[in-house]
Amino acid sequence: MSNSLDDMLAFHQQALSVRGFRQQLLASNIANADTPNYKARDIDFKGALQSALALSGERAAPAGTLATTAAGHLGANGSQGALDSAAVLYRSADQGSVDGNTVDMDTERAQFADNAVHYEANLTMLNHQIKAMLTALQG
């Protein structure tokens, strides 16, 4: 059973989780820019967030199954919910390279910076929401 505090913060929790996972993928792309045959990977943020929110709403588990309380917890089948490898997509190459690598450093840097700004914005909104709740509690 979830309480109203969990429900209030669930969106930001899931958004930060998905943004963090995307940041790891983008960092991996940048780190493997010179690796032959490496294919750049990314996620559809909107789809991954919707899946994560849907999974967080399904907290009640049937009797005898393992309960997961966070999107990062592994389920009984070893998946991480919306953030498993099925959500990862391959980015199409704008310009082919001789070694088969599809990482475009300009695109990766731009996506990395954009995702970092959105991550910080989510943290700021979450911080304001928590401060507003504290103000309401303190009177």
Structure description:
It is built from 3 helices and 2 strands, in the order αβαβα. It has helices at residues 4-31, 45-57, 105-138; strands at 41-43, 88-90. A two-stranded antiparallel sheet has the order 1-2. Helix 1 packs antiparallel against helix 2 (45-57) and helix 1 (4-31) packs antiparallel against helix 3 (105-138). The radius of gyration is 18 Å and the shape is elongated. It starts with a helix and ends with a helix. The model is unreliable at 60-65 (pLDDT under 50).
Any key phrases for this structure?
mainly alpha; 139 residues; 3 helices; two-stranded antiparallel ribbon
Structure described in brief:
The chain has one domain. Helices cover 54% and strands 4% of the residues.
Summarize the SSE layout with pairings.
Blueprint: H1 4-31, E1 41-43, H2 45-57, E2 88-90, H3 105-138
Antiparallel strand pairs: 1-2
Helix pairs in contact: 1-2, 1-3
Number of strands: 2
Question: What is the distance, rounded to the nearest whole angstrom, between the alpha carbons of the first and last residues?
Answer: 28 Å
Structural class: mainly alpha
The low-confidence parts are: 60-65
Round the mean pLDDT to the nearest integer and report it: 82
Give the strand content: under 5%
Taking the sheet with the most strands, its summary is: 2 strands, antiparallel
Based on Cα principal axes, name the global outline: elongated
Question: How many domains comprise the coordinates?
Answer: 1
Q: Cα-atom Rg, whole angstroms? A: 18 Å
Order of helices and strands: HEHEH
- How are strands sequenced across the largest beta sheet? 1-2
Helix percentage range: 40-55%
Supply the number of helical segments: 3
